[in-house]
Amino acid sequence: MNILALESSAVSASAAIVRDGKLLCNFYLNNGLTHSVTLMPLVTKALEYTSLTLEDIDIISAAVGPGSFTGIRIGVAAAKGLALKNDIPCIPVSTLEGIAYPLKDSDALACAVMDARCSQVYNALFSFEDGKMTRLCPDRAISLEELKNDIEKISKKIILIGDGTDISYKYLKDYLPNVSKASELIKYQSAAGIALRAYDIYNETGKTCSSFTLAPSYLRLSQAERELKKKKEKNA
């Protein structure tokens, strides 16, 4: 089984291919260019360097959020377009699950964090046993203080992972001595985590969706929508 995964939830963009649980390639860019410019060339290179065509892909997966509204839209739209051509089934993967995946073989609790701006982080907590991921809370947008209050009673080692690691660690380190940061090698969002997590999801549940039903999960309104809501409330 070949799974093609796309990740464009934040500043970096990547495309990866997994075959039967083995990572064949992970093409990654973090050079400041927009995902509309970088993502599809990464997909093309991933297929080229694995000697595969789109017809060889069995499942297409994408990071569906949370994350950058524009980035998520680009990634999901690209996945939908690729899947539609050959009616390839899709597997949506939480960005935070993909972020936490590199800690799958760790005995620590994974605290996936993304910079959500507005003094918040997107966050979810995961534990692992025998390589199996267990979700401890839903994906959420919370303040760093709320995150501290939620995990301060946990005695187990906690590893922060994701592009919100540095801002979270700076806030939490003086309160929680059991909190540490993931290595730079695995800290940032990557399509490899999305592809491998999609493989596990398929093996555990067998569930897929069509390209028509693959959809983003934003968690909160965009800034424009928030401003419009405030305006309507003010004028009500």
Give your account of this protein's structure.
- This protein has 236 residues and is an alpha/beta fold.
- The protein is 35% helix and 27% strand.
- It is built from 7 helices and 11 strands.
- The strands form 2 sheets. Strands 6, 7, 8, 9, 10 and 11 form a 6-stranded mixed beta sheet that branches. Strands 3-2-1-4-5 form a 5-stranded mixed beta sheet, sandwiched between helices.
- Strand 2 and strand 3 form a beta hairpin.
- Helix 1 packs across helix 2.
- The longest helix is centred in the first third of the chain and has 18 residues.
- The termini are far apart.
- The mean pLDDT is 93.
The shape, in one word, is: globular
Radius of gyration: 18 Å
In the predicted model, the low-confidence regions spanning at least 5 consecutive residues are none
Q: Main β-sheet: number of strands, strand sense, barrel status?
A: 6 strands, mixed
Order of helices and strands: EEEHEHEHEEEEHEHEHH
Residue-averaged pLDDT, rounded? 93
Q: Indicate the structural class.
A: alpha/beta
Please give the share of residues in helix: 25-40%
Q: Helical element count? A: 7
- Let me know the number of strands: 11
